[in-house]
Amino acid sequence: MDTRSYRYEFHEGVPLQEVEETLMLAALAVESLHGRSQLRLDAAFRLDKAARTCVVDARSDVGRSIARIFTGFLVREFGDEAFSIRRAPSQGREPVFQETQGG
Questions:
Q1: Given this model, what pLDDT does residue 89 score?
Q2: Measuring CA to CA, which residue among 11, 4, 8 is closest to residue 26?
């Protein structure tokens, strides 16, 4: 299966504000690798705090880099058991998200 996105699900007790900060740190690291313009063009991700999920579009090198770095940071910060990841097909032809949601 060709991976189009990764869906992260966070267990209760994982502070989602810290997950959001970790996601932004991963995006910053990817900006250092690929440049600001490429990040703006190709990065697509959504953190839904209410659903305790995050989806990272992995159709580009930028997206795959975000997923790799984000996953590594999450394991270091919260541990392997704090979240699960599954591959998911893309939700359409165009990346449609680049924001975090929820309170």
A1: 72
A2: 8
Only one residue has tokens 């990841």, namely 85
Place of tokens 């990817």: 30
Q: Cβ distance 87 to 74 under 8 Å?
A: no
Identify the structural domains of the chain with CATH numbers, from first to last: 5-101 (3.30.70)
Q: Which range is least confidently modeled, 43-47, 71-75, 95-99?
A: 95-99
The structure tokens listed for 22 are: 């970790």
Q: Which residue has 């990346």 as its token pair?
A: 95
Task: Identify the CA nearest to 98 among candidates 53, 55, 59, 50.
Answer: 55
pTM, rounded to two decimals? 0.85
The pair of structure tokens assigned to 87 is 């591959």
Concatenate the DSSP letters of all residues of 82-100 into one string.
Answer: GEEEEEE--SSSS---EEE
Q: Would you state the structure tokens that stand for residue 48, as one six-digit string?
A: 């839904």
With cut-offs at 50, 70 and 90, classify the pLDDT of residue 96. very low
